[in-house]
Amino acid sequence: MGKGKGPYLCGLDAAVDVVGGKWKPLILWALYAGRTLRFGELRRHVPGVSEKMLIQQLREMEADGIVHREVYREVPPKVEYSLTELGETLNKALEPLGLWGDKHMERLVARQAEKIEQSA
């Protein structure tokens, strides 16, 4: 899974391997609750991600069984992404982390600003 690191030390180690990085949690969040998105739509829901990085992250998540990629044989080609059942359970597990971030976001942003000021 993820980078294929294993064996894992604990469940948290395994989970972080699958969702590690800046973009995977945002991709998971964009594909919440049975939502299906085409590549362009998904890219709009994850601002700042390059096309190359989004493709790479989606491939890793598909290999991990988190994301389902459906290719429709038509012209022009149509590809849709959705969460698998495993991906849905992972998204639910991340909900408390998102709530923690919402609760502490102001404090976290202030700390980042302090760091920037100190390094300038």
UniProtKB/TrEMBL annotation:
Keywords from the UniProt entry = DNA-binding, Transcription, Transcription regulation
**Sorted alphabetically, which InterPro entries does this protein's record hold?**
HTH_HxlR (IPR002577), WH-like_DNA-bd_sf (IPR036388), WH_DNA-bd_sf (IPR036390)
Domain HTH hxlR-type, by residue range, is 10-109
**SUPFAM superfamilies documented for this protein:** Winged helix' DNA-binding domain
Superkingdom as given in the UniProt entry: Bacteria
The yes or no answer to whether the keyword Transcription regulation is present is yes
UniProt cross-references to PANTHER family, sorted A to Z: TRANSCRIPTIONAL REGULATOR, TRANSCRIPTIONAL REGULATOR, MARR FAMILY
What name is this protein filed under? HxlR family transcriptional regulator
